[in-house]
Amino acid sequence: MKISLLAACALAVPATIVAQQATPSRAMTARPAAAPTLIKNATVLTVTKGRFENTDILIQNGKIAQIGKNLTAPAGAQVIDATGKYVMPGIIDPHSHSMSDAVNEGSLSVTSMVRIADVLNPTAINIYRELAGGVTTINVLHGSANTIGGQNATVKLKYGRPVQEMLFAGAPPGIKFALGENVTQKNRSNVVIPGQPSPPRRYPTSRMGQEEVLRDAFTRARDYRTGWEEYRAKVAKGEKALVAPRRDLELEPLVEVMEGKRLVHAHSYRSDEMLMLLNLAKEFGFKVATLQHGLDGYKIASEIAQAGTGLSSFADDWSYKIEAYDAIPYNVAILLRHGVVATINSDSDERARRLNIDAAKLVRYGGLTDDEALKTITYNGALQLGVADKVGSLEVGKDADLAIWSGDPLSVYSSAETTFIEGEIYFDKKRDLDMREKMAKERAALEQAERGPRPTRATQIPNEDDK
Amino acid sequence: MALLTRRFTMATTAALAVSAALPSRAPAQIGVQCERNAPEVYAITNARIVPVSGAVIERGTIVIRNGVITAVGASAAVPADARSIDGAGLTVYPGFIDAYGSLGIPSAAAPAAGGGRGAGAPTTAPAGPQLSTAPNSLHPAGQQPEILAVDLLKADAEAMAGPESAGLTAALTAPSSGIFMGRSAVINLAGATTQEMLIKSPVAMHIGFSAARGGGYPNSLMGVFAALRQMLLDAQHYGELDAAYAKNPRGMRRPENDPSLAALQPVLARQMPVIMLASTQREIERALDLAKEFNIRPIIAGGGEAYLVADRLKAEGVPVLLSVNFPKRPTNAAPDADPEPLRVLRERAEAPKNPAKLAQAGVKFAFESGGISNWADFNTNIASAVTSGLTADQALRALTITPAELFGVSDRLGTIEVGKIANLTISRGDVFAGGRVTKLFIDGKPVEARAPVTANAPSMAAGTWTLTVTLDIGEKPITVALIEEGDRIRGTLQGALGSAQISDGSVSAAGELRFTVSITLPSATEEATFAGQINGNAVRGTVQIVGHPPGSFVGTRPAAEGAQGQQGGRRRPPQR
Amino acid sequence: MTHLFKRATLGVSLVMLAAGAALPVRAQLGTFNPRPGPQGTYAIRNARIVTGTGADIANGTVIISGGKIVGVGANAAIPAGAQTIDGTGLSVYPGMIDGGTTLGLNEIPQGANATVDVNETGSFNPNVQAFYGINPHSAHVGVTRVVGVTTVVSRPTGGIISGQATLLNLAGDTPPQMAIAPKLAMVIELPRSGFAGRGFGAFLAEQGGNTADATRARQRQVDSLKQMLRDADAYGKAFDAYAKDKALPRPEHDVVLASLVPALRGEMPVIFPADAAADIRSAVTFAEEMHLKPIIIGGRDAATVAPFLKQHNVPVILTGVMDLPSREDDPYDANYSVPAKLLQAGVKFAISQGANSADSRSLPYVAGMAAANGLPKDEALKSVTLYPAQIFGVADKLGTIEVGKMANIVVTTGDMLEARTDTKFLFIDGRPIPLGTKHTELNGMFKDRP
Hints:
Chain A is α/β, with parallel strands linked by helices and 467 residues long.
């Protein structure tokens, strides 16, 4: 079966031919990756193995080489004094729409054939702003326009690098599902703009129909798989002159889902729709990786735990639509207490920059410990995305994706000062200040070169005084 | 009886006078011989000749007979029956070729009947560029590779005045819209009939990446890629089925004839190149990735940031049809428009340097008009590339022999050599250093290069727009700066909805605007689809956001961006 | 001895209230805001007192009686019969004020239109009052106050004259019980420069106008606004004259013009939503020309026009501190750093979470973010307590812990702006507020569900 071949093709672009790259204005100049870095005397929040005061971290070859006291810097190492500062793993945002040139293929109810990886924009400025919030890995998801959406992309925010280098190597592929109001479009078709035709209705317009769309799609996918199995059996028996069945890019990802090779991230709000999906998944023999948003997840925490499904939620966002009206900030804590791997996500280029504050809210509302709270924006996200062997905590051997914070990251008064991915600096407060100056100079020069300064304004603003 | 005939004659005359006012043909009249038997022998003497195929002839003669070059040289004899043109002070180049565009294809080509599986039923006509359709296609409009540009051609001398003023004598022309846009033709820009204009068809398959408007699948850039993949896979499957059936039809269900998939067979066999529209670095890389995935032969068209991908283009042997429609600095800024990002300033600064960089990297490229709105910019922009490091010879080759080679017509076009089609571009002064194109020969017939009727045709959507967007969360002022490339648009959104790049948009000749862009609302980052109608320097329309009630937008741009004092933006050159 | 006993009593009653026992009111959409206790005499002792005036008391007592703060100090005497709270390890703060919400007007913005009353139809609605649209039983009330936001300005939006904003305490069964100033301020959204927006703008787009035409259209809108204000001025004067001299012809009443008179007389401030520098300038210049008392709300570009604001002594309610930078080349902290810049420039400002009322409870973290980006911590606190009170002219009642002020008091486990901090006791208008909310109720219902 050729199913996974295609996905592999799309991702595997030889590194040698990526020679040049448009360097976005704020991209940090990458130093040679081989140069080691020693971060000295920080409070190290490993997240999984406790916190250590006055501790050093040695980064070599993009990995965390050592964590301990009084480490010696190897020759040529960059040494950063982090006295009074905190180091935590890079934040993982399990639900993002950053750097995507398209979010929804909402024309059909099943668009499993579309791929976010096809439309990533590595120059999107907001990913730099997220780096400034200590974020290093994001899960770029298809939108919630339809029941079965497109394939997501797990991305490291290597701003200024080619997109092929940003795709998280080895991260399992996934797909977005969506349930509820956004899919039924009940929350957008109730306003009619005079003179504008109301948009055509797309099946399904009810939660009943959503179940039907899923059942239909997976039933078709099952038959599709059988068709290929029969074909391969004939080939194996040595039958000649066979023509392989038609490849169907809509059904292939669903077959992968049933075979446990593709993670399902399902946008869902109400507990009944989550339960519907969990039961349907069981029937078709797969596990839902995460419920996204899952704001009412706390109402069926045991069932979610039993299904082995994770949940990624907002810390305290609520009441913006009907299905978010029963959302409570205790959601994640309740789920964690029931054994669900739960995380906080942003779904927003804005909120992604302050997920540390969102995590801190769980201490207040759910009574989580600091480490438990930190896990919801680091390690648990790594688990949900299947990359916990590489990122999500500070452990020797893991990727050196981490940030130095001015203080305790769970404090609103703290901010990320330097953000590393695989040992390279992608954000640094001091360098950022230098860059502002450089950009201002470049702008002035370019404007000068373009036939003088900015054009005069077409019209003067009335009432404006020049002061 | 006599009365009837006269009326008929008059009507016919009127119709043809508009569509076929070409020098060597009289308007048809019933009962009178249409064709004039004027001798078609010309000699251009005393001219500076740049043959491209060899050394420049500082003072020489070119002889043309019946559409073909019959002699070139410093001492070529002028035949006694030739009309002699004194070329003193003139430079003669091989006729320039526009390596990509939709010249000769009216932008509002009326859709043919049918089209699409289960056709007959008129689909809710989506707003947007009028997609050409093929008869009895099994695939929806926009995904019909079987379309032939030559079937859509209209001989319209007036439409050619602009390109001719830039010295263009021939062009690769293709349908302007769609995902699989169809197959192109190389045409001469003059001729009484489309068949007379035609040089070669089909030349290449064309892929645009513009999503369908109006909500049908695919309506996003992601969907476009998926649709392309599925169709190429289906074409592979179709080929296998066809081969199997051809081998032994007995007992096998007859494969459904599918003209679309049939048209893709030469593409899969690498016999026909695929011209893919891609401007930015990431668009080019995506196109190259797709080509690699299906082992097809890509040619990039547009290529604004090709210099950033030069090494890969060179390594993979991919030529570029480089748009000379360089981004323009907005002439005016609205009082409160957000400043242009540095990225945009850089793009403008880099555009003229791009060709020299490609030349240096060894990437094969030809120039194309790229939906240019002002034909006077064509040679001005090439001249700026020359002052930015491109040699005049490289520039000339990119307008002549390179496109001829790429399109398999170098035996007929691209140089001044005996036996080639007599397409010549004649200028007073070096055309890449401020010289002016004065005359052309197309298919061996002289054409006067006239300044186009509209000296400065407006661009439909380009410029800096200030918009007020009304959403469920209130009114949000934003600035949208758009670059127009044919009917594709891209740009930047800034203001109260955050900042984002617009990379998937289109505008029709009738001013229907559509783009999708990420916006950040207080609660979430969402994708917004703006769809509106441009009316002069104003625009209004609707905004669709998943999970939100529809919003609306209204906005303006300063007068000088587009049509100054023009009623409704309905004037737009029909190219691309 | 009485102290302990009383504390226990109070503790029990608060717990009961929090659990939702014996509370009959269950309002629209199943919301649940437990009813405040009585305006008794309460003493919070042994607590760190962050008065908000700059003079903190490391270990002291706050005494509340009859709705007011009657004693503050390290050794304030506790009146006989006071119910006491042992504040050991706790901090006492003045209640926070958000000067820019739509709380009570805006329950579920997407897909539930009928719960949204922020915007009246038409362009000139000076007589429309937010006060009359407030739903006291909004679930937002409870969840907002328990983080320490005790008081909000709720404002109408849209149109040109949007209507009148109201100042509310987040406690009470009825709008009159909540209101501190029912008619607090007029909201005027001056048409923006350059952007073809309302009314004429839409018309323009149909006519194919351009930016210059839009600017002229805007001027026409501003002219009609001025005309209305001048009419209102004349209207006020006519009634004054008639009151003095009944021999004059009796002027006819007009509720619309009448509602503008206080603003024209400087008795009611005018809130101008404005973000762009030019719009901020326009609003101030307009206000001065029409003799209005301006407050800018929004203020994204306020830092770039700070000297101008300082010179004209115009305060700003910042609603966009957490927003993404609006321009591609803006630095990442473009909006985070606006408060620090305004402080440095000497411009009076307050921080607001903005119009998304379900999220008004995030106000402290917005102030915290400003503090993480250059604003001193004590200024961050003032920007959500004293400064909004000053801007709206209610600093005699609100904004600090001082004797004589309304007893809006938050007792916390730590720094009130920190997200990890919890609220232990809450007083609004001197009434103890049970800490139950819709959220605690659902939490209680499901947290132990097997």
